[in-house]
TrEMBL record:
The keyword RNA-binding does not apply. This is Carbohydrate kinase. It comes from the Bacteria. It comes from Streptomyces rubiginosohelvolus. Keywords: ATP-binding, Disulfide bond, Kinase, Nucleotide-binding, Rhamnose metabolism, Transferase. The keyword RNA-binding does not apply.
Length: 489
């Protein structure tokens, strides 16, 4: 399959707005990533709500594996929190509900009436987000689908089940459900019992590097892959895989920014931080590769710009970025984490309304709105990284920005200016690289997490952005956005 000393792995990497199947050739001094197939991920508005087109995605995965050709293993990562319900015979009970669906409205207060938010945070270390799996499952209580379900699989585990016929629940993604104890790495059964959530629905836990089955004969026939082809559990939450691919040096004091539809900003720690101050700041403690903890905050991310472009019916971001670069800095800013930006629809109008509500100038042209989005994201990055350092008592000297945003030079420079430290941008396909490298370790290529990061730093193109501009301007802009609305009580 591969040249002597190297192996080839397929990474199925499903993001909230697009998916891809990549192949990675890995050896002691080799890491080459090739795109086999890329495809959009378009949710569907049905009368009952917003749903994922999971069958369409699975068909694209099969097409991607056919395009990838022979591989030594494959792994799957995706966005977090969403799931499919299966009947006792293993058949899917409807398309998975999208995390942006409105079914969890009012459920948070219902949950907190049973388990106060402080208790919930101490039990799991997971941030408040209305779409967490815990709230989704409480919202689903009493529905015919949940009542008839024999099992529940998170999205990457569902794809793996269709490929192999074997069920499992990978730990890094399971930690985002708000049902795992971040200290023990196991289900928090007392919490689930208090909320009436049946943990027996979940398949046994797997950890990154564990075997996850072998491609079924029918899948091999459909994809043309010579077998047997093992499926390997990776950091199946795409952020876990992306953080594993941060090209940090062994002694670097770094923060990371995983940028795409969402921006995930934080630190890699050895233990969770579950203090009251951390809960109030809405930081989460998700489990990562090799027992690490991803201490981070979710920020709305490039979703803001993606939705604007959908409204404007534009597909090429390059002219927008050129226009934005000519706009005055920090003239228009909003709180990029505000909940009114979560749902799809008329994002330019909502951004203008947010500026109007603070008596600030209102952006009107696409260039002005794009600059507002990028300045506001840089401010949100600044705030999250500074608060993470304070809460974890950890200083950083550099920010590693990975994911799709690494291609956005203006966003990278603005983030360096806002944070006041250098930003190292890249790799853009961090989730796929992390996916591939966890597989490589599981299949005999030696190296710890630090060694795999060194391999990425040696082999992947990276760009460095030094902070510039007037720090006092960022301080003033931060004060305009950091009178943050409080979390629900």
């Amino acid at each position: 399959m591969s040249a002597a000393g190297t192996k080839t792995f397929a990474a199925v990497d499903l993001g909230a707005s697009s998916g891809r199947v990549m192949t990675g050739r890995v050896g002691p001094d080799t890491l080459r990533l090739t795109e086999a197939h890329r495809f959009p991920n378009r949710p569907v508005h049905l009368p009952e709500g917003l749903r994922w087109d999971i069958l369409g995605l699975y068909g694209e995965v099969l097409d991607g594996l056919r395009a990838a050709g022979p591989v030594d293993s494959l792994g799957i990562d995706s966005w977090a929190v969403d799931y499919g319900l299966l009947a006792a015979d293993g058949s899917l009970l409807g398309n998975p509900v999208h995390y942006r669906d409105r079914r969890t409205e009012g459920v948070v207060e219902q949950v907190w009436a049973t388990v106060p938010p402080d208790d919930l945070y101490r039990a799991t270390g997971i941030q408040y987000a209305p779409f967490n799996t815990l709230y989704q499952l409480v919202a689903a209580q009493g529905t015919p689908q949940l009542a008839s379900a024999g099992s529940l699989l998170l999205i990457p585990d569902l794809i793996a089940y269709w490929l192999t016929g074997e069920q499992g629940t990978e730990l890094t993604n399971a930690s985002t459900t708000q049902l795992i104890d971040a200290r023990t790495g196991d289900w928090n059964r007392p919490l689930a019992d208090r909320l009436g959530i049946d943990l027996a629905l979940f398949a046994p836990l797997r950890r990154p590097g564990d075997p996850a089955g072998t491609l079924l004969p029918a899948v091999q026939e459909r994809t043309g892959l010579p077998g047997p082809v093992p499926v390997t559990a990776v950091g199946s939450h795409d952020t876990a895989s992306a953080v594993a691919a941060v090209p940090a040096g062994r002694r670097e004091r770094f923060a990371y920014l995983c940028t795409g539809t969402w921006s995930l900003a934080g630190l890699e720690l050895d233990a969770p931080v579950t203090t009251g101050a951390s809960r109030s700041a809405n930081f989460t403690n998700e489990l990562g590769i090799d027992g690490t903890v991803r201490f981070l905050r979710n920020i709305m991310g490039l979703w803001l710009l993606q939705e604007c472009m959908r409204t404007w019916e534009l597909t090429d971001v390059t002219p927008l970025l050129a226009d934005a670069a000519r706009m005055p800095a920090l003239r228009y800013v909003v709180d990029a984490a505000a909940p009114e930006f979560l749902a799809p629809g008329d994002m330019p109008g909502r951004i203008a309304a947010a500026c109007r509500a603070t008596d600030g100038p209102v952006p009107r042209t696409p260039g002005e709105i794009t600059r507002c989005v990028l300045d506001s994201l840089a401010l949100a990055h600044r705030r999250a990284i500074r608060e993470a350092q304070h809460l974890a008592d950890r200083e950083v000297d550099v920010v590693h920005l990975v994911g799709g945003g690494a291609r956005n030079a203006l966003l990278c420079q603005l983030t360096a200016d806002a944070c006041g430290v250098p930003v190292v941008a890249g790799p853009a396909e961090a989730a796929a690289l992390g996916n591939v490298l966890v597989q490589a370790r599981a299949h005999g290529l030696p190296g710890d997490l630090a060694a795999t990061r060194e391999l990425i730093a040696r082999t992947q193109p990276l760009s460095r952005y030094e902070p510039s501009g007037d720090p006092t301007a960022w301080e003033a802009a931060a004060r305009r956005t950091e009178d943050a609305r409080p979390l629900p009580a």
